[in-house]
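call fold(seq) -> tokens
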Amino acid sequence: MLALSDVHLSYGHVRAVKGVTIRVQAGEIVTLIGANGAGKSSILKAISGVQRIGAGAITLDGVPLHTLPPHRIVAAGVSHCPEGRRVFYDLTVRENLLMGGYLLEKKELAERLEWAVGLFPRLGERIDQSGGTLSGGEQQMLAIARALMCKPRLLMLDEPSLGLAPLMVERIFETIVELNRGGLTVLLVEQNAHVALEISRHAYVLETGRVSLEGESRALLADERVRKAYLGG
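ret:
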């Protein structure tokens, strides 16, 4: 489905991604783990077109994405929920969600809005509140729901559990698994490496912009190098 081939990305003179090759099959949850600054978020930004790559290729079902602007990538079926939630604080929950579904026709948009608040009932309870008045967990729900409004085939999540209480983290991961069981492909960047590896099928370990390890998630959970570096021994 999604393929990155020898992708390079730089910020000025700083090389953030150095020849990364990644594959995501349809219907999978694939996770990227690594320390801060390893290049994980940069890879998601490259896929969504927010950051342009310097070399290599990014394709979706064989169709190049790296030459397209972000709105065309969304139309192709790729949605990006960035780190830090990034909800519109001055817009209501309803308005935030409608922004996420801007590509849909009016009837379909209304149906998708109903589906989104069904997925996260708390958003339905807060539907007319501004995004800035929500708790951190509620904002994360809103960010994920907004990313889902455009009916993506591939959802990219960047640190969805960051800063959340344990019960909210559990709810977020349950939702990711539920969405995947419904057929959604997920590319996940997550600081909680243990949980990310438990729910994913395949994983890539990034170090200083390069893939240092890859394989089935269960195998990496048992890998001594991964356990020492990311799982607390």
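The CA atoms of residues 27 and 181 lie 8 Å apart.
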